Amino acid sequence: MKKRYEALLILNVQGKEDSAKEVVERLEKSFAAEGAKIEQVQRLDKRQFTYTAGHLDSGYYVNFIFEGAPEVIEKLKAKFHLDEDVYRQHYLRLKSRAPVAAAAAA
User: Fold this and answer.
1) Segments forming the whole domain that contains residue 10
2) Overall pTM > 0.85
3) What is the CATH number of the domain that holds 66?
4) Total domains, the chain
5) Alpha helices, DSSP H only, in the chain?
6) 10-residue block means of pLDDT along the chain (106 residues)?
7) Using CB atoms within 10 A of its CB, is residue 50 exposed (0-12), middle (13-18) or buried (19+)?
8) Sheet of strand 3-11, all strands in order from the earlier edge strand to the far edge
9) Which SS3 state, helix, strand or coil, does residue 20 take?
10) CA angle 67-32-20, nearest 5°?
11) In this predicted structure, what is the pLDDT of residue 2?
């Protein structure tokens, strides 16, 4: 059964500002390759970190809303953990969307 998820990815684009668009497009293909259906991609732009815990002081935030089977999350986590352009990743399960006809009747 497919469920809706939100994935917040922080990308390491330090020194390669022009390539953020290409990285996001590559990540979209990775979602599709694992069987996830992307509903929306929100590019939240580059932001400074409140504190630095490593070598980066800022990152490019991208929010993906997608539909997929629960096992897709583990596959994506493992895949993006090995990707040097993905600095951090966070996943959240979303509520299912109400059918349009039921929402109109209410």
Assistant:
1) 3-105
2) no
3) 3.30.70.60
4) 1
5) 20-33, 70-81, 100-105
6) 91 78 92 93 89 83 93 93 93 79 54
7) exposed
8) 37-48, 58-68, 3-11, 86-93
9) helix
10) 105
11) 86
